[in-house]
Known about the structure:
- This protein is an alpha+beta fold and 854 residues long.
- It folds into three domains: 2-239, 3-Layer(aba) Sandwich (Rossmann fold), CATH 3.40.50; 274-327 and 713-852, no CATH class; 414-553 and 565-611, no CATH class.
- The strands form six sheets. Strands 15, 16, 17, 18, 19, 20, 23 and 24 form an eight-stranded mixed beta sheet that branches. Strands 6-7-8-3-9-10 form a six-stranded mixed beta sheet, sandwiched between helices.
- Helix 6 links the parallel strand 7 and strand 8.
- It is elongated and about 155 Å long.
- The relative contact order is 0.11.
Amino acid sequence: MLKLVDIKKEYISGSKYSKKIPLSKVEALKGVTLEFRPQEFVAVLGPSGCGKTTLLNVIGGLDQYTSGELYINNQSTKHFTDYEWDKYRNGQIGFVFQNYNLIMHQTVLSNVEMALTLIGVSKSERKRRAIAALESVGLGDQIHKNPNQLSGGQMQRVAIARAIINDPKIILADEPTGALDSESSIQVMDILKKLSEDRLIIMVTHNNELAEQYASRIVRLVDGKVIADSNPYESDFKEDTELVETSKNPFKRLANKVRLNKKRAGQKTPHMSYASSFKLSLSNLNTKKARTALTSFAGSIGIIGIALVLAISSGFSNYITSTEESALSRYPIAIQKEGIDSLSMSSILNILSKTDKNKQKYPNIDGAYVGKFLGNVTDNISTIVYENDLERFKAYVDEYFDSTYASVKYNYQSTLHIYSNYLDENDYIKVNPFDDIMDQYIPEFLKALIADSGNNFVSSVVKSMSVWDELISNENLLRDQYDIVGSQYGSRWPQNKHEVVLVLDEYNQIPDYMVLAIGLLSPDKVMDVFNPDSEVFKTQMKFEDLIGLKYRVMSSADYYYQDENGAWKKYETIANLPKDYIEENSIEIEIVGIVRPNERCKAPSINGAIGYTKELSDYIIQRASAHPAVKAQQESPDHNIVDGSDLSKKDYDNLMVKMGVADLNKPSSIMFYVTSFESKDRVIEFIDGYNDYSKLQGKRGIKYTDTLGAMIASINEISNAITRVLIAFSAISLIVSSIMIGIITYISVLERTKEIGVLRSLGARKKDISRVFSAETMIIGFISGLIGVSLTYVFSVPINTVLEKNLGIKAIANLVWWQALILIAMSIGLTVISGFIPSRIASKKDPVKALRSE
């Protein structure tokens, strides 16, 4: 069964790099030849340093012999692989050490189960067999205790139970009674004696008395040689070469390997499962709670930094997306008749500064040329300035566009001239366009105050004050954004060109300048508006008084009239006209409803205080086109019908625009009011489809402006850049913490060196040892990630509170669940990487040296 032939073992000491301690060989075993019976109790005696423990380690496969032959079951071990040695130790060898070598952070039961764990025995079967083994050594009532709660004798009995759990054929006991008192020594020896009845026991001891009393055979070693054997054994030995892989003949070697693989097939390979690795590592970490907690917290700092950045970035992106979606109806996709392409100023300058390719750089001449800049404008005008054929595009939209995607609004260069007699029924004042009456509404001191900014500034500010706005045609969007108020007074949405709606804000307010612009405040009270404590701001206008208010609307052509001689004249002062003239040359409109944006509305689609219908816009254009003055001017395109001045083609076209003439097939701009990102995508696809269609026909497409999209894209670009920078800084702390975890893992390897030796003696593979420490780093990484993510959610509460208080933005710090999972996975991955080198070091440790460590 077990035979040693001329076994020699040499150790190399010293260093080839040191002159003081040169390399030297130490022979621990010098040609040991022994053969053992399948069942006997062999005691190996000898002085310290004679090679007794080395002999046990060689027999147990923990140490490799230098020369000779070790036969197991008549098979040479000279060409054993690591796999075969591990399998041999796990299935045929049981070790009992002088210092017990129990894993102190495991229970008694778990220590005994370990050998079975390595071969994948089920949990219930492991427990049953481990309890039976412990009961056989008299420790059935101690299974849930830790080793440090037992006496020395009890710990040695636990070691014996662990050694016999796999029913090995050989038990190797190294000084099993060396650390025990007499009573405990006798108990241990009695157990070993009983075990020798059906297996081979090889015991190394210094105690001659116990050896004589219990051993059936005594072998004495001196200086690495067998000098005496009380009961030698020599069988009819015949080497089994069937499964030896090594052969000079390559075909035989291949055949042997095939036979070996067949024999291995179906056999349980000793290995530690991932679950067992985690359990072992978790048990070890549980004994070092404080260090584990501090390490995990340190590792979580980088995760917290990245998580907070991602949370705020994600929340900000959600806020931007929500804001963009809610503002879609306020910032439509616009298509202008003409405009400047959306190039940056630097791009335009680069285009205009482009030099002729034929020009030579750094010429060697005595002169200078004139470079093109303004000269490039003509060649590149189509690149910088574009013109859209809106007549053709409108026809395409009217025929093919699906109105469920967006509300289409056609704008024309026509103006609604609106008058109110609310303050004095006998006197109309003009209330729209607001810039026509700014001279009477803006105080002189304010004009002087902003004079330095130029009249263009004043005009642009006033023109931006939108008061009267055409309602979009999407009734569903309007009803989704606005609620009707004052319904008890018959408040409703307008249904024709004679009806308009008054728009309040969420506080039921109308901005002061809009109150002026809809004729509810006298011009002589404008100064009161600049006093924040004025009674104007305390006055409440009743809904019943507002509903039913009437206005008069004129077209630009309605300011033309014929005198008694039939000559055409025009009112130059249009702010105040005779009452009769206004009533005779206008139509009446009435406020029939009051609306207010609801809580769902983030960006109202009505940009003013009064919303009117498309029917009114179309009617005013048709009214102007049908006016006698327009007809007369069209019959005399070369001369102005009022003053008789000559008109060029451009002057005539401009005059027609000023008179309010517009072709309904030729809008000045087209607006697409979308309600969702999906509908926006559909509109853009529609425009792109038109451009592709135009290209096939050899015609130019159109260019559109997505102001909101461009603005949001710029914000997102800045946000992403800031996010990347902050993540980079946070990643530094993550890398530092990973290095720290790697160092701590290496310290853990040093602390658990003996445990490594124990596991290897039980048959654990190198990769099993590596897996144990990888599992430890994974657990730390998981805890670090969990702490980091949890604290991020905790910190998000005060961050959101502060930001909401100062910026009015709710839930800006919002870590998405999948981001949290990714961060935890990243934490695990980094800790596993950081622990890779320490785990490899652990797997390569010499089990003999590991068992000797303290």
